[in-house]
Amino acid sequence: MEKFIDIPNLPKKDVSLVVVDGRIPKVIEENFYNLNVKIIKTEKIGTYDAISYHPDVMLHHLGKNKIVVAPNVCQKFVYKLEDEGFKIILGKLPVGEKYPSSVLYNVARIGNFAVCNKKYTDEVLLDELYKEKVKIIDVKQGYCKCSICIVNEKSIITSDIGIYKKVINEGLSCLLIRPGYVTLEGLNYGFIGGATGLISKNVLAFYGNIDSHPDGDTIKSFLLNNNVIWRQLYEGSLLDFGTIIPLKEYCIVE
Known about the structure:
Layout: E1 2-4, E2 15-20, H1 26-34, E3 38-41, H2 55-58, E4 59-63, E5 66-69, H3 75-83, E6 87-90, E7 108-110, E8 113-116, H4 123-131, E9 135-138, H5 144-147, E10 148-152, E11 155-158, H6 161-169, E12 173-176, E13 196-200, E14 203-206, H7 216-225, E15 229-232, E16 245-250
Parallel strand pairs: 2-3, 5-6, 8-9, 11-12, 14-15
Antiparallel strand pairs: 1-16, 2-16, 4-5, 7-8, 10-11, 13-14
C-alpha cells in the first residue's frame, strides 16, 4: 500500500513515488527501480534549457495530495499526477525564460518553514503556504530549493551564505559548503539541492558521488550526525537534475 507524504520533502517511510527530471540517464532510472521507487518524469517547460526539466522549477508539493504547478506545465505531466490522485492547484504566472520568472515555484519547504524570495514567488503558492500556516523565511536567493538539500525537518545543507545566515537565525541546523562542484550542463555549476532528495526518513539519495565534492567528508559527517545515510544513484561527479521530489511512501495497513 501507498500513502501521500504528509509533509513536503520529508517521508516517514520508504518512498514509493518521486518526480524527477525527464532527462535523467537510464542508469539512474534503473537505480530507482532497484530501490522500488516509481518515477514520474517531467516534460520541458518554457525556461532556459539547463533547468527546463527540473521538477523544483515547475511545481511545489504542499503536502498530502496537493501540488501547485505552473500554468504552463505540460498537460501530459499534469495527467500523470492526477492519475496518482493528486489535486492540482494552478499557479498564477507561467515559468519564464529568464530570472526572476524562472524561480516562481522554487520554494524550499523545511518542516514548518518555507525558504523563498517572497518578491518573486508566485502569489498563489504564497497564499497556499499561508493557509498551511507555514513560516516564510525571506531570502535574496531566488533558486531556494535548488540551493537547499533537506536532511530532516531541522537540518539542511547549502552553499548559499545568505540562506545559511537566515535559517540559523530561525534555529535550524545548517551545513555551509563550498559553492560549485555540482555539474549542471549548460551552466558553470549547479547546486546541492538539485542533486539530492530524501527517499526514506533516514536515506538521502544523491545524483552522483559525494566524494566528488571537496566537502564530501564533512557532508557525510553531517548526515551521520543527523542519523541519515546516503544512496548513490549515479557513478561520477554530482549532477544537478533538480530536486528529487518524494510524493508517496509505502505504508502498512493495520
